[in-house]
Design brief:
This protein is an alpha/beta fold. Helices cover 33% and strands 25% of the residues. It has 14 helices and 19 strands. Strands 3, 4, 7, 8, 9, 10, 11, 12 and 13 form a nine-stranded mixed β-sheet that branches. Strands 14-15-18 form a three-stranded antiparallel β-sheet. It is globular.
């Protein structure tokens, strides 16, 4: 469904074109609440594809010896439910090199490294003949490992181009991606663009974090979405990791985590054609033992980071787990967009609010290409001052507008722009039906 404005159209996401996924993490405290129970939660709210994460080392446990237990189970389990799979095989997982031990000092651009991964893919294909792959992701948050090292980026790009092309031979029509963090895509744009030259989807890991691991306000989401779309206006985005901690230690709360879900869907509607899928990460909070494991794995003991990891879930960890408000909001936001028909009580959603809001800004096109137009309609006797900013937060222009003004600004550089009401008349921008 599209919401049509006077000079712009925003299409609401829909199940045929946009996919809701859930990272189906299990609850470790109560074994009776098993994977089937958790999987059902995701399926009932509208999940039609989900992820499987395997490091290279978790499959090739020692040189040329393989463990296909997870994939063998997947081959039986997911086809029975008609569930497609986003399969991640990670030679790099965030800041950890996950190649077989004999390849630990081998360059990614080496034919030895490339051919070994191709051999791995050969075996993977044999073990999941019945699985429908919605995408194959090679590497997870690899930019954290690369940092600003241009040689590492270049070597992995050679590896990725060779192995992704080979994967498409094995699975004709396969969509291939590599997952980078939001910060990596933005801050290492040139290297990331080169790496993603042959990607079918732009894989994103998105947790809106400050440098001290506290959470950014949910108002960062529309800005961040716009920045990604500006960088990749043609290729669709897939958020293979997407979450928000609820701990007060992270400057968050249960309410703020719920608002994160609400704002995510509002912003997703604005970029329905650009964002293919969001995998909401993850279903359950972590147990103390899991937090300890990841602290050792990443080599990070910062208590705020550990609390961020612990509280990303949309259900508590204790006993069988209790739904947080964020999970109910996810169900409701999915329901109003046709992803489920659950009999649930939902508070007034953002979609419903839009039908009554009268203070409205329309911006078109965004990203802009030389010319930007917008219409403002508000109930105020005196004119108000608006300011135009680019995606980097730089002031571009100040504009004085009156009731029901139509403005056109030319001679702009190509990019994403934002209108700010400097008089603070309205707390945020609202999009409604005309």
């Amino acid at each position: 469904m599209c919401i049509l404005f006077a000079i712009n159209a925003i299409c609401q996401i829909n199940p045929s074109q946009n996919k809701i996924s859930v990272d189906v993490s299990t609850n470790p405290q109560n074994a009776s609440f098993d994977y089937d129970s958790c999987f059902t939660i995701g399926k009932q709210l509208g999940m039609t594809q989900t992820g499987i994460f395997q490091t290279w080392q978790s499959i090739e446990t020692s040189p040329m010896y393989y463990n296909f237990t997870v994939l063998n189970i997947a081959n039986l389990y997911y086809p029975a439910y008609g569930m497609a799979i986003d399969l991640t095989i990670a030679p790099i997982a965030t800041n950890v090199l996950e190649v077989p031990t004999d390849l630990a000092t081998t360059s990614f651009s080496s034919t030895i490294m490339i051919n070994r991964f191709k051999k791995l893919l050969d075996s993977v294909k044999v073990h999941i003949p019945s699985v429908t792959l919605s995408s194959l992701i090679i590497g997870s948050e690899s930019d954290v490992y690369f940092g600003t090292n241009t040689s590492k980026w270049a070597d992995f790009t050679i590896f990725y181009n060779a192995t992704s092309a080979y994967a498409k031979i094995l699975w004709p029509g396969l969509k291939v991606s590599t997952e980078l963090t939001f910060d990596g895509l933005i801050n290492q744009n040139s290297a990331a663009q080169t790496l993603n030259t042959n990607s079918d989807y732009i894989g994103v890991s998105y947790y809106p974090l400050n440098i001290d691991f506290t959470m950014k306000p949910v108002t960062a989401i529309p800005t961040d979405f716009a920045a990604l779309v500006a960088l990749y206006p043609v290729k669709q985005l897939c958020f293979y990791q997407y979450g928000y901690a609820s701990s007060t230690l992270c400057n968050s709360s249960l309410l703020q985590q719920k608002q994160f879900i609400s704002q995510s869907f509002t912003s997703w509607d604005m970029y329905a054609t650009h964002i293919k899928m969001i995998d909401f990460t993850w279903l359950h909070d972590l147990s103390p033992s899991q937090v300890s494991y990841y602290s050792a794995y990443y080599g990070i003991s910062n208590p705020i980071f550990l609390e961020y990891l612990r509280t990303i879930g949309m259900r508590d960890w204790a006993n069988r787990g209790t739904d947080k408000p964020a999970l109910q909001e996810l169900r409701c936001q999915a329901k109003v967009r046709g992803y489920n028909s659950l009999t649930i009580t939902c508070s007034t959603t953002e979609v419903e609010k839009h039908s009554t809001v009268k203070n409205t800004f329309f911006i078109y096109p965004n990203p802009a290409n030389e010319t930007l137009s917008f219409k403002i309609n508000f109930k105020k006797d005196a004119p108000i001052k608006l300011t135009l900013y680019n995606v980097f937060g730089e002031l571009v222009k100040e504009i004085l507008v009156s009731n029901e003004s139509k403005i056109s600004i030319s001679d702009l550089q190509k990019g994403v722009y934002f209108i700010v009401d400097e008089s603070n008349s309205y707390s945020n921008l609202k999009f409604i039906k005309e």
